[in-house]
């Protein structure tokens, strides 16, 4: 098996008999072996203890997200209080934009990549309309140069320099879903701040894939799903990051009872007593069943660290590249080569233009993406 040939793998976590290489972790991560057991524990608890399950067991449902969010925060470089596990990715992007997209007649634009994931684009456009602005004039893009597929950091910075004063929010993906480009998050964040913009990141393809230091990079906000590189099951729980500098600010928010302090939550007196920080953004109680597979996945991440995962991922990616180039000598260059020759910036994926093979995830008719699944959880 591919992974076992290259590395020492904990055989308790894999099926060593299975000859399979999975390249679709970008879409849906594999099922951690312990996920079944942990889901069954929650099912049994429900069956046997009913409402008491809210406070009983390893994952008491009333706090099940809180049992996991410090592990989640570690993966993105968040401090305590900066990360909350909740909802789905696009829902969270909307909730964050409610706080950070506060357009005025002179500062009403959102800067994003020209091939932003459609759901992000719809979120930006609908937020603009919500505030009475027209996406035609309020959405601005950075596009690849002619004949290129990825964005040059200098072009992003130039756009921020030229239009920054009219930009309310800069929002890019950490790793571009289509090209695999890993954006220079600290440099872009700093440039946005220098022009007075809020800077946020959709980390759907970055969280659990590349090293992130959201707190140190002073990112204002970020959101990500956990069903891709974090193997938490289809539609698994998403997360948000809010930098602690926003903890005590009065940014507008959509509120619900799960953002209310536990000590007073059940007084039911309609006096909102919010938990400062990321938890303030929680609205509804957390689905306990969805925390079970996420717990199984985070336990695997906890056996190692993002730097170690990256070291392994780079070897796997290099090995994959060698195998592809040996088999298909005339293959064009990986399309993120322009920006990703520095291995520090290589996510665990490779995207090629204009080749056709049938067995690998084909995201569009002329693009192939290879995602090496670096987590040994078959
Ligand atoms: C970059 C990116 N943003 C947003 C989404 C939408 O995610 P969700 O359906 O969880 O809101 C996806 C889904 O694949 C994505 O890849």
UniProtKB/TrEMBL annotation:
Keywords: Cytoplasm, Hydrolase, Pyridine nucleotide biosynthesis, Pyridoxal phosphate, Signal. Pathway: Cofactor biosynthesis; NAD(+) biosynthesis; quinolinate from L-kynurenine: step 2/3; Amino-acid degradation; L-kynurenine degradation; L-alanine and anthranilate from L-kynurenine: step 1/1. Transmembrane segments: none annotated. Residues 1-16 form the signal peptide. The keyword GTP-binding does not apply. Homodimer. This is Kynureninase. It comes from Mytilus galloprovincialis (Mediterranean mussel). The lineage of its organism: Eukaryota, Metazoa, Spiralia, Lophotrochozoa, Mollusca.
């Amino acid at each position: 098996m591919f992974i076992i040939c290259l590395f020492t793998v904990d055989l308790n976590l894999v099926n060593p008999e299975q000859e399979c290489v999975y390249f679709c972790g970008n879409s849906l991560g594999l099922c951690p072996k312990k996920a079944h057991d942990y889901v069954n524990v929650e099912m049994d608890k429900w069956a046997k203890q009913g409402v008491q399950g809210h406070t009983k067991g390893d994952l008491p449902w009333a706090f099940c997200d809180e049992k996991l969010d410090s592990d989640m925060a570690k993966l993105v470089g968040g401090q305590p209080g900066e990360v909350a596990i909740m909802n789905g990715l696009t829902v969270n992007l909307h909730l964050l934009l409610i706080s950070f997209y506060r357009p005025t007649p002179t500062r009403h634009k959102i800067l994003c990549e020209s091939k932003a994931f459609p759901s992000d684009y719809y979120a930006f456009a609908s937020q603009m309309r919500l505030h009475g602005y027209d996406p035609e004039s309020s959405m601005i893009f950075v596009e690849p140069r002619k004949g290129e597929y990825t964005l040059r950091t200098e072009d992003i910075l130039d756009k921020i320099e030229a239009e920054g004063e009219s930009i309310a929010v800069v929002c890019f993906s950490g790793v571009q879903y289509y090209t695999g480009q890993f954006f220079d998050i600290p440099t872009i964040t700093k440039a946005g701040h220098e022009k007075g913009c809020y800077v946020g990141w959709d980390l759907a393809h970055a969280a659990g894939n590349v090293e992130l230091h959201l707190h140190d990079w002073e990112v204002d906000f970020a959101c990500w799903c956990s069903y891709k590189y974090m193997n938490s099951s289809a539609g698994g729980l998403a997360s948000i990051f809010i930098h602690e500098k926003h903890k005590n600010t009065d940014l507008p928010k959509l509120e619900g009872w799960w953002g209310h302090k536990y000590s007073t939550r059940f007084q039911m007196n309609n006096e909102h007593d919010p938990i400062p920080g990321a938890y303030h953004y929680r609205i509804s109680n957390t689905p306990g069943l969805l925390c079970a597979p996420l717990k199984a996945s985070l336990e695997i991440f906890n056996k190692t660290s993002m730097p170690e995962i990256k070291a392994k991922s780079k070897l796997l990616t290099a090995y994959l590249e060698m195998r592809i180039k040996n088999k298909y000598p005339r293959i064009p260059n990986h399309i993120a080569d322009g920006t990703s020759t520095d291995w520090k910036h290589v996510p665990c994926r490779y995207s090629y233009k204009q080749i056709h093979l049938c067995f690998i995830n084909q995201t569009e008719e002329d693009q192939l993406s290879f995602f090496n699944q670096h987590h040994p959880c078959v």
